[in-house]
Amino acid sequence: MPDRNYICYAQNRTVLKKLYIQNYAIIDEIEIDFSQKLNIITGETGAGKSILMGALSLILGDRVDTAVLQSRDKKCYVEGIFVIAEKKAVKAFLREQDLDIDEELVIRREIGSNGKSRAFVNDTPVNLEQLRQLSAMLVDLHRQFDTLELGESDFQRQVLDALAGHTDVVQQYQGSYTQWQQAQHELSALQQQKDQFTKEYDYNKFLFDELHDAGLKENELEEADATLKLLSNAEGIKTTLSKVTYELGEGESPMVQQLKSLCHQLSAYSDHHTALPALLQRLQSAQIELQDIADEVERINDQVQYDPQKIEQLNDRISTGYKLLKKHGVHTTQELLAIQDGLEQKLQAVLNIDEAIQAKEKAVQQLLQKATDLAAKLTANRVKQVKPLQDKVNKLLAQVGMPNARLQVDVKPLANLQISGHDDIEFLFDANKSNRFEPIRKVASGGELSRLMLCIKSLVAQSLDLPTLIFDEIDTGISGEAAKQVGIIMKDLARKRQVLSITHQPQIAGKADAHYFVYKEIKGNSIKTNIRLLSQDERITAIAKMLSGEKPTAAALENAREMVMN
């Protein structure tokens, strides 16, 4: 179960609670429980401090070097347990990647004897890119010559924004910028649509005019086809109808008259048999129905007329309609009328789209103006922070043993608005008062740049949501008062976030909340690296040795005691 006190202390920050390493380089097996505040790691040169950082880098997503496998018959394991508490960004990432979410996060890297590695987050396999993205939210590792983040424009901008304290303006700007970009996209789509409409307009107009001139009415072709069949067979139909009319009412023995006569004969006996009235009624109904049929046939016969002119007109009409049906690949008049309506809408759209484009252009301009105004406010706020940042960092640089080093912040306008604003921000560095400032990303001077990063991050630590900070030999090239100042800055930085640092300087080691000592020991026929947490008395002795050698003097011990107690 997670340590509840540990989690409450961590609150909204990440903390590396435990690191477990097995079979890595000359490490057989070690387990380190870290403090939530300032963790200092010391040890003699070659004892294996850098090996610890190499192992840690594996769970941060670094690639594997099979040379680190101590024993080829066993896997290498590196496991880190992080307390993430209410860290929203980390939980959002885990949710997006469909990874389990808990108050503790376990990251494990396994390297097989064949050199193949696997990574796991809460026992779920992940790839290296996922591991790198996640670890960047958990740990900020600074090694010598590792100044990538410091040289990144995003981080440099975040520093100025943190000092300006204008999160609300940043959010307003980014919202306006996103709306402007969306409106730009919609305008571009409308313009492309207009181009397409324009290309198709003449052809659509021709098709529409052709259908419109045809003047087809609903079901016209189907009805014309039926009428044509009737007229084409008019003579035969008329002859047959005449014959039917004759046989029903005018022949030598007309059917209607015969039925009438039969009814008359049967009615004379209808009173003498109970079944006869019903039969008589049915015969009378048949006579009436047959008479009605005869009248209808005669009426139809009178209507049917052979009309050659009408037939010619219908043939022309149907011919025109069938050509249109074939041209448009449809089968009914209704489908042709639907195509005509669609073409009319497309032609109308060409007329309407200019209005839509004008309206969208106006909206785009308004959103651009709003975003530009907010970007100008961001720029003004950032520029206000340039001199204070330079002055504070340069003062801190002098304190940490870099009196000739200078930071210069260059803010220039970008050609176009970006999601971050209208500013191209570049941190420039001059290590020797040469007045030749170069972009930090082009400068590589190991510990000096790590100290520069420490100075900058100490200024923005309260505003930026920084992860666990790890400094690997940040003290290179300094001692005395400068080292003491580095220790003070680290101690202050560790009040709000976890800090780990490998150091050779007693002044820094004296500031530790937890002091770990890396050493080599002989196990069997091999030399192994191990680490242990020092007690207060052991800390005093270790720091005294850092001050005066393997056999510390009484003065060194007293000096070390003062460092630890203070």
UniProtKB/TrEMBL annotation:
Question: What's one GO-annotated cellular component?
Answer: bacterial nucleoid
Task: Please verify whether the record's keywords include Aminoacyl-tRNA synthetase.
Answer: no
GO MF, one example: ATP binding
From the UniProt record, list the coiled-coil ranges: 276-303
User: What family classification does the UniProt entry report for this protein?
Assistant: Belongs to the RecN family.
Q: Where is the RecF/RecN/SMC N-terminal domain?
A: 16-523
Name the Gene Ontology biological process terms.
Answer: DNA recombination; DNA repair; SOS response
UniProt function note: May be involved in recombinational repair of damaged DNA.
Q: Which UniProt keywords apply?
A: ATP-binding, Coiled coil, DNA damage, DNA repair, Nucleotide-binding
Superkingdom: Bacteria
Is this entry keyworded Cytoplasm? no
What is the name of the protein in this document? DNA repair protein RecN
Kindly give the InterPro entries that the UniProt entry links to this protein. DNA_recomb/repair_RecN, P-loop_NTPase, RecF/RecN/SMC_N
Q: Which NCBIfam families match?
A: recN
Pfam families registered for this protein in UniProt: SMC_N (PF02463)
